[in-house]
Structure formats: C-alpha cells, structure tokens
C-alpha cells in the first residue's frame, strides 16, 4: 500500500508522487469512487507538454466523463498503457497499478500542491 501522507494532491483530485524530477500522477480513490466504474482512459502522448491546471486527459466511467488535469507543468515521459488497456485498474488500485502519467517537472513546483491533511479537509474528511 502506498503511503498516502507522502503524496501531494490537487483540488481536482489528482495525486502526485515525486521522485527526483519525475512526477507520477493518478486520480485519488475519492475521485475514482465518485466516478464509478472506469471504462475508458484517454491520456496525453509521450513527449507532449502538459500545463499545470489544464486538462490533459479524460476518464470515462459508466456514470460520467471526468477530466484529468495536469497538476504540474512538464513533459510527459511515460503513460500507463496497462490502465489504458484495462481502465478498471483506476478503480482497483488508484495509487498503485492505476497511475496514469509520468511527467518531468520542476520539483520545486510540487511544494505548491496540497498535503494529505489539506486534501482530506477539502473532501470533507471523506478519504
């Protein structure tokens, strides 16, 4: 299990794990639960530049369509092909096998994101 307190979060319900200048991004379990059963994931291409707070992908469920927002500006260096091929991973393991993209970023920009306590407060204590 991922240490959720070690992650950073956005108000749009993305989580970010940073290793050096690479940020792994996914949606939180809260977002996955609100979406329902994810059936389709559309992600940016490797090599694409994503801009913080801008839409960079789409997540469709049996209930609705949600947008994936880039939490940071940078270059997409990897996408999770397994989640594209099997979107149910987003629901089953949002913090592990259900990650979505990896982006090369300025690591200092991560400090502006929410910590776990702030994210839990944002969601009304609903994790």
Automatic annotation (TrEMBL):
Q: Which InterPro entries match?
A: 2-oxoA_DH_lipoyl-BS, Biotin_lipoyl, GCV_H, GCV_H/Fam206, GCV_H_sub, Single_hybrid_motif
- What's noted on cofactor binding? Binds 1 lipoyl cofactor covalently.
Post-translational modification N6-lipoyllysine, affected residues = 63
| Presence of the UniProt keyword Endoplasmic reticulum in the record | no
Q: Which cofactor does it need?
A: (R)-lipoate
Kindly state which keywords UniProt assigns to this record, in alphabetical order: Lipoyl
Any Pfam family: GCV_H
Domain Lipoyl-binding residue range list: 22-104
Q: Which GO terms describe its cellular component?
A: cytosol; glycine cleavage complex
**Which CDD domains does the entry mention?**
GCS_H (cd06848)
One biological process term in Gene Ontology = glycine decarboxylation via glycine cleavage system
Describe its function: The glycine cleavage system catalyzes the degradation of glycine. The H protein shuttles the methylamine group of glycine from the P protein to the T protein.
Q: Output the HAMAP family linked to this UniProt entry.
A: GcvH
In which family does this protein belong, per the annotation? Belongs to the GcvH family.
What binding partners and quaternary form does the record give? The glycine cleavage system is composed of four proteins: P, T, L and H.
Write down what this protein is called.
Glycine cleavage system H protein
| Protein species of origin | Microbacterium saccharophilum
Species lineage: Bacteria, Bacillati, Actinomycetota, Actinomycetes, Micrococcales
């Amino acid at each position: 299990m991922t240490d959720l307190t070690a992650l950073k979060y956005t108000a749009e319900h993305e989580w970010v794990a940073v290793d050096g200048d690479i940020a792994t991004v996914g949606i939180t379990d809260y977002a996955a639960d609100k979406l329902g059963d994810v059936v389709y994931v559309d992600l940016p291409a490797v090599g694409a530049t994503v801009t913080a707070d801008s839409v960079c992908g789409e997540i469709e469920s049996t209930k609705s369509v949600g947008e994936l927002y880039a939490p940071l500006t940078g270059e997409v260096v990897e996408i999770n092909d397994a989640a594209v091929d099997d979107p149910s991973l987003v629901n089953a393991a949002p913090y592990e096998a259900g990650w979505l993209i990896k982006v090369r970023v300025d690591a200092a920009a991560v400090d502006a994101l929410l910590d776990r306590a702030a994210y839990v407060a944002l969601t009304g204590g609903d994790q």
